[in-house]
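Appendix B. Extra example for self-study. Work through it before the problem class; the solution is given directly after the inputs so you can check yourself.
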Amino acid sequence: MSSTTVINLAEEPANAFAEIKRRGTALLPLRQDGLARFQESGFPTTNDEDWRFTSLKPFTEMPFETMFEPTIQTIGQSVINGIAFSQHDTDRLVFVDGHLSSELSQISNQSEGVIVSNLASALTTIEDKIGALSGKDQNPLIALNDAFFTDGAWIHIPANQALSKPVHLVFLYTAIKDGQASHIRNLIIAEANAKGTILESHISLGQAAASTNVVTETQLGDGSNLEHIKLQDQSSLAIHLASLHSKLGSDARYAFHSFALGAQLSRNNLRMDLAKPGIECMLNGLYMTRGRQLADHHMIVNHAAPYCNSHEYFNGILDDQSRGVFHGRILVEPEAQKTDAKQTNKNLILSDEATVNTKPQLEIYADDVKCTHGATIGELDNDAIFYLRARGLDSQTARRMLMHGFTGEIVERIQHNTIRDELNELVWGRLENEYHLN
Amino acid sequence: MSTSADTIDEFVSSDYKYGFITDIESESLEPGLNEDVIQFISAKKDEPEWLLEWRLKAFRHFEKMENPTWPHVKYPPVNFQEISYYSAPKKKGDGPKSLDEVDPKLLETYEKLGVPLHERARLAGVAVDAVFDSESIGTTFKEDLAKAGVIFCPISEAVREHPELVRKYIGTVVPYTDNYYAALNSAVFSDGSFVYIPKGTRCPMELSTYFRINAANTGQFERTLIVAEESSHVSYLEGCTAPMRDENQLHAAVVELVALDNAEIKYSTVQNWYPGDEEGRGGIYNFVTKRGICKTNAKISWTQVETGSAITWKYPSVILQGNNSIGEFYSIALTNKAQQADTGTKMVHIGKNTRSTIISKGISAGKGQNSYRGLVQVGKKASNARNFSQCDSLLIGNKCGAHTFPYIEAKNPTASIEHEATTSKIGEDQIFYCNQRGLETQDAVNMIVNGFCKEVFRELPMEFAVEAQKLLDVSLEGSVG
Amino acid sequence: MLEIKNLQARIDEKQILKGINLSVKSGEVHAIMGPNGSGKSTLASVLAGREGYDITDGEVLLQGNDILEMSPEERAREGVFLAFQYPVEIPGVNSTYFLRSAVNQIRKHRGDEELDAMKFLKLVKTKMKELGLAEEFLKRPVNAGFSGGEKKRNEILQMTMLDPSLAVLDETDSGLDIDALRIVADGVNRLKNQNNAQIVITHYQRLLDYIVPDFVHVLYDGCIIKSGDKTLAHDLEEKGYDWLIKDS
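Solution. Structure tokens for the complete assembly:
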């Protein structure tokens, strides 16, 4: 991996790191190791196969201003009331530029033993768990996060317990100044047979080109069941870099839904480790881009045990000069017999200038498996439009209905009823108001 | 399966029936790669100055490049200094004037390979150019073709006889800067075939080149150039075999196809280089660059049956430059024993209303690793471009691997691209059903594999489809125990 | 009801319909039969307004209005219903939502009150019961993952709900087992009244045992070469088409 030549990338973080030391921040060895790894690798460039279609230049060319301090700016409750999911009955942890806001957070009495808290306050007890899953990843952004993370969520559901209500993680970015960088770390552990729903929202308050680099680790015990819905709806200059590492126990069920609607550049690195039998893992996503946005989903699902199912469904709608990037790799190791893996990526292009790069990949070393993948790029299906028109719908309505179906395919997979309905409306409203649908 | 262990052993050791060595006096260049070697080859072929210059430029470029590491294959680095870049059967005096004067041992070799060259036994309706190590030893039906205006000859001869045509097209589809092995080939290519089909001509017979590596420690670097003028049509087939040797041998070919307006080129390959043994000893490294360019309404169709080679690394591609042009790729790649294949295609849509079809069937058995790697690219101006890709993998046994790495890129909203892929194994229930109807397990496997590959066999010229089917059966022997 | 006069159409440069004349009155059932490639499906597509066909001559009047200039949806709202030979799968679009939208578009056009969700559901459930369709149907996306028989039954359900004045059934019987065939035929027969008409396009006489036509027409090479009553269908079943083709 070679570092780029723009402003002293490796140096800026090093200088910023002096501040970490000065503050005597916890987990110094992890942070120093992260910095060392980052300095060795530098930022990935488009010469790296994993970053071939996504240049980090918009990020690397900005100043590097880590948000060490919580922002002083007061954020009113009205801001929270205006964001998606806020009208649902949830527990809520709110972070502003990577720091917990106790005033805006609200935690009820969860079931016995359930922990819903911020990570920074619990570091001493969970030290060994941080980086347990993400540590092996060579991604320089994780190294950077190891060095600089400030706070994030810590959720623990003990064995045989369920979250009594969904937990909503709200990440707000003040985005007052270009280059503001928030490094966020989340740790979610669901023990055996535990159950819960986690919502994750990323929202910009200002319009500046601020960045976020979030690393989330989810560990699911045997027989546990977690639904995780992420909505990234940041401003059109924001940079959103995210990594999710999950390790699943036997017969665990994990559904991760990604809605990437905002940001000038968004990248979701998803790494699923299926090393126990009987796992069901679903990655389900919708990206909608316009203007000069780029949305990238990059996933590796590693089947290392028999009888696991993994499904990846990603649909994208691309308008203006925007770009959609999809990289999916299903890796089936020799011992992962009876794997059932499916991957689809469908893209709808609305403008002459939008681009799609898709790489749905299978790497299979076991013989008794069922693996399929498919990718499509194109306009709406003319036969389907005719069919609808032949039933009396005008062509505009027909097109809209098909587009609704296209987004609906993804939204429908959310199990939580009311959240699903809200997302359905949100997505559709966005398309109706901001995209060229005709 | 009812066979005892002995029979299985027999299967395994007997399966490469082209592994013999022809005992013939050869004139070989000392191993080594430098400008002198290139000067030597060029002088040997009596080449004009421009071609030597071109070779040297390619060589200097090659020296600046690095061996590509992105293919999904593993092998020790090739030492280019240990390879001999020229080997040819020794000629007496001026060499043979016609096939009748060719050394009988050579004719016998081709006869054993099932490609008789002498007049009595020639394959009807197929003109053959036989390339032995670095030299073409003869071309059949030359006169008949000449009557139709078709030129079919060794490329070294074309350089002498039709320099203007060679100079106009060589390196235009695959420039020497294209990739590492294309640069190497451009520097040291020894022989290969040249085909020219004049305007409005339908080539009266199938054209075929048979490549044979014989000498030890030699590399084969052939270069093929096919030019189909406006509204012409040609079907071309190449076959390849090599003796069983413990060392790996390098084969780095370049094939360039030019299909001008309304022309059609059908290019079929049956590649059966020595695959090496179960432990991965020996076998050919088959690193090939094949590409065609289509002008308006032109069509290029690649069909390949790849059963040989220790390592295969090739992506026959089509540049769909002209409006309404069509590119097709039909492939069967089988890896057994310790073979590794990373193969696929690139379809580059530039013109309007361009269409491409990709059908790839990968079969992995033994410890074989089989990867499909393909690119479908639709440029900004390629409105109404259509692509359909289907990549299916079949696994036999649990030590092999099947991988699919498609790259899809679209910059035009009217594009329609569909990619489908499946991976499956031969089901125990399918085998049982066949057994219960009285079929041997191996026969059942062959039957299922042949069914799996049907769509590709259909694309091969008739006589070769039968050959290819047999070849697949032989290559699968010993794959089930 | 429907007047087709000298209808000629082609795809690309190929002339498919070479001058069709057909008059269908209210309350009538017409069967159009013919060998493969005679132009049967093209006729259905042209009536419904599918793109890609060049109408080179002739006119099609529905209750006196020329429909050839109308868009597919306008024709649908005017009462033309095409039961597709290959109903299209529309993943992600819920069947109920789809059908209610269609019903209300057509009701609006006719000046009827639009149905709210409750009324619609009540109506569709009644119709489904009549047709012997499971309610499960409504929850699934339109035709996606349906078997061939299910798709055809879904077409009949839509027809029942949309209550067209002219229903064109394009090879609706293909791929149906005998039970499914009965359901389909039953749906068509229920729809029949003095104010509407049906054109049944079929390859086989089989369907006509259940949907009894008033007239049978033989289409060959883009023209109607013979018309008669239902006995013509039986003749065709026995003798094939060759005797007619030789005469023509």
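Self-check: The CA atoms of residues 106 and 140 of chain C lie 23 Å apart. If your reasoning did not lead you there, revisit section 3.
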